[in-house]
Amino acid sequence: MPTPDFILELRRFVGTRPLPLVGVTAVIIRGGEVLLGRRSDNHALTPITGIVDPGEEPADAAVREAAEEAGVVIRADRLAWVHQIPRITYADGDQSDYLDLTFRCTWISGDPVPVDGEMTEVAWYPLDALGDVDADMRARIAAATPDHGEARFVTGGSDAQPPSA
After folding, report:
1. What does the CA dihedral 83, 34, 151, 4 come to, rounded to 10 degrees?
2. Which of 25, 80, 92, 101 is least crowded, fewest Cβ atoms below 10 Å from its Cβ?
3. Which one, of 22, 58, 30, lies nearest residue 145 by Cα?
4. How far, in whole angstroms, is CA 16 from its chain's centroid?
């Protein structure tokens, strides 16, 4: 999965220092199932995620990432959760601080397949059987599972979980 050009350009100026970025998580629901993919970099099972491009609306980024990573057409229905992910340090020393915007999305069409190499597999999983999905991704899915509701946000530290409904 190639690093977006705008990040490579920024890295020329900031080096490996922490770079604040906006990310999206598309929790794509179809009936009682959620679309998950196995990441090619760390093999984690996650919803579709990605980085918002400069000038791009975050909901549009969620829709774009679903098409790019899984080959599906979706609709972003609502913002479900806003939270800061703990700093990530990559193998090359680059550090990133991601503000994640989690969207509840509805599947419209397309059979999920790994498209751009970011996922090794993508499939529908029952919402009540998420297998080896980690706690952070489970929290994102839980925040987006209700059909409606206000967006949740976190205060007081990066290890906080979404407030209960």
Report:
1. 50
2. 92
3. 30
4. 23
Residues facing 23 on adjacent strands: 51, 100
25-41 pLDDT per residue, tens: 999 999 999 999 999 98
Measured CA to CA, the distance from residue 70 to residue 110 in angstroms comes to 9
Pairing of strands 152-153, 73-84: parallel
- Please, are residues 99 and 84 in contact by the beta-carbon 8 Å criterion? yes
Q: What are the tokens at 125?
A: 């999983």
pTM for this model (two decimals): 0.90
Question: Quick check: 152 pLDDT over 50?
Answer: yes
Check pLDDT > 50 for residue 163.
no
Q: Can you tell me the distance from the alpha carbon of 125 to that of 94, in angstroms, rounded to the nearest whole number? A: 33
Lowest mean pLDDT among 94-98, 112-116, 136-140, 147-151: 147-151
